[in-house]
Design goal:
Order of helices and strands: HHHHEEE
Strand content: 5-15%
Number of helices: 4
Number of domains: 2
Helix content: 40-55%
Strand order of the largest sheet: 1-2-3
Shape: elongated
Number of strands: 3
Keywords: Membrane, Transmembrane, Transmembrane helix
Transmembrane segments: 12-28, 40-63, 70-89, 95-113
Radius of gyration: 24 Å
Length: 165
Amino acid sequence: MHALQSRQLPRGWAAALFAGFVTVGALQPPRHERPPTQPAWADVLIVATLLLLLVAFLALLAGRRWGFTPAAYGSGGFVLVSAVCPAWDHHQIGAWWVAQIGISVAMLVGSVIGRSAPTRPTAAPSVSAAPSASAAPSASAGLSVLAAPGAVSVPAATGRFRDAR
């Protein structure tokens, strides 16, 4: 897989997270003030969720697969905050709330799938190294060649290449 292709999935998911978050914001009715029944832990959870989603968005936009981890945790917080929102009279339950739950669950599921998706190895570069007759490696040994920026191991018996970085 080419480097460009390996970064398309995270960038696509960054766009999907942004679209989901903006859609929820557009659907949600405005609130006038913080309800007095909203517990303090909810404020901490909301801030942590927003920070995790921001970090995830920036990492995924840069094509970094590790961005799926904060996306999963941030989306999980988003599901929790969305689910308990009516409990402290932040908003009343309505069709928008059902849509918000659905979108936040989709964000969570997609992030978990992206986080657990296996990474595909990139094709190893072709290296031709012929050992000298006096220092021939055994069938189980490999020849280490220093290559920029790390070492590449060339198993003598199989001729396959393995990136040792």
